[in-house]
Amino acid sequence: xxxxxxxxxxxxxxxxxxxxxxxxxxxxxxxxxxxxxxxxxxxxxxxxxxxxxxxxxxxxxxxxxxxxxxxxxxxxxxxxxxxxxxxxxxxxxxxxxxxxxxxxxxxxxxxxxxxxxxxxxxxxxxxxxxxxxxxxxxxxxxxxxxxxxxxxxxxxxxxxxxxxxxxxxxxxxxxxxxxxxxxxxxxxxxxxxxxxxxxxxxxxxxxxxxxxxxxxxxxxxxxxxxxxxxxxxxxxx
Length: 237
Hints:
By secondary structure, the chain is α+β, with helices and mostly antiparallel strands. The chain has helices spanning 21-33, 49-54, 74-84, 96-121, 124-145, 158-167, 170-177, 188-198, 201-206, 210-225, and strands at residues 2-5, 8-16, 38-41, 63-66, 69-72.
């Protein structure tokens, strides 16, 4: 997909999988900036020569191709997008201290995602401890970030992009796995923030349809019960 910026054509292609939260971060970043792009769905159980060649270290999605140059790692790609396409909204603030704080909490949200993954991949015996760890992380995030108000498509930033793939599907995950993830009484700020985000048109456009997500999660749960998760599952929830 081509876009003219400053008189120069910009060709952008995103390689990802629809279940990958890491690829979803980049997709959201592109959509929020209004950058036209081509999307290529990768099969991680049968990785393409392109993916193996252009992300030789990790061999994972996402990979962003911009004017023939390949980038990997979602946070690196998002920072690149924010610098190359300098139009608002800006993902990171200009002030160095504020920028450092946003990056800190972005890293913490990654830890929240990893804890959530433990909850969804733990057997019944270990799930209670995994939930406790998740709730502790959510409490710190709730108290540490302060309020997130006036959420609009025009002012979305890096933390919004991080939190949507992390907690945006919490309702269907709670339904399928029978575990409480995000409680409005325990985490009122996070609950309000996430629910405000998932109602925005730009976020809805990037969301996988429920009729696709539910069977995927149910299939994962069944494989987990048989202790036969697929190779791609752990990075796809």
